[in-house]
Amino acid sequence: MQMQADVLQRPLKRVPTAEVSALGAALLAGRTLGWWQQGSEMQALQGGSVITPREDQAKNMQENYHGWLDAVARCRYQPH
Question: Has this prediction a pTM greater than 0.70?
Answer without folding.
Answer: no
